[in-house]
Amino acid sequence: MQWEIALNILEIWRYPVKTLAGEKLSRVCLGPLGLEGDRLVHVEDASGRVMTSRSHPRFLGHQGTYDSQGVIRVGGQLWESPEIAAMVVDIAGPGARLVRDEGPERFDVLPLLIATDGAIAAFSYDARRLRPNLIIGGVDGMAESEWPGARLHIGPVVIGVQKRRLRCIMTSYDPDTLVQDKEITRSIYRRFEGQLALDCFVIEGGEIAVGDAVQLVRESA
């Protein structure tokens, strides 16, 4: 059953380096592991444990991007450069380093996180705190809470919605100033049962772009 709601893609975000700020795109290809090039590099400590901005929020002050040659850069520098290696150690301590990983285990939950404009409006803070890959527009309030189990069709692309995302302390950090306000995270638990945005997976891949129409489809009982 198709729900007759006029939806579209408002924003696309990719995070070439996990836990760093991401880049806003106009179009992208989706594959089995979500957005092409998403979270291909992450931070590890000397023992190989993955490190994130949950424990080292200063990483949020650095941005990962792809250049015109498809090479990952951090703040304009090659991600493998000595300058970036020194930055990682300065933030996370001796032995910390950036590591490339193309496997599915590089994602905390599922490869794709989708937020909706209605939920963002109800949240009333910068959507970047939620670190979505896609923002879907045209959604009434918290209607996204009814989406788990449904599918999103964007042209030939089909995305499955699995569940709502349980949020962590990273939502408490301002994406520009890095100032922490723990009350923001507490409010997510108080007002939204701790859950905002949707954990999703790709069923059929392809290219999507900002402005593309989105169809919300639920299988008939």
Explain what you see.
The chain is mainly β. It contains 3 helices and 17 strands. The chain has helices at 82-92, 117-123, 182-192, and strands at residues 2-14, 23-25, 27-31, 34-35, 41-44, 50-51, 64-66, 72-74, 77-78, 97-100, 112-116, 134-137, 151-154, 157-166, 195-204, 206-209, 213-217. The strands form 4 sheets. Strands 1-12-11-15-14-13-17 form a 7-stranded mixed beta barrel. Strands 4-3-16 form a 3-stranded antiparallel beta sheet, with no helix packed on it. It has a 3-stranded antiparallel beta sheet with strand order 6-5-10. A hairpin with a 2-residue loop joins β13 and β14 (157-166). The mean pLDDT is 95.
Topology as H/E string? EEEEEEEEEHEEHEEEHEEE
Low-confidence region ranges? none
DSSP strand content: 35-45%
How many domains? The number is 1
CATH A-level architecture: Beta Barrel
**How many angstroms does the end-to-end distance come to?**
9 Å
Query: How is the CATH topology named?
Result: M1 Pyruvate Kinase, Domain 3
Summarize the structure.
The chain is mainly beta and 221 residues long. It has helices at residues 82-92, 117-123, 182-192; strands at residues 2-14, 23-25, 27-31, 34-35, 41-44, 50-51, 64-66, 72-74, 77-78, 97-100, 112-116, 134-137, 151-154, 157-166, 195-204, 206-209, 213-217.
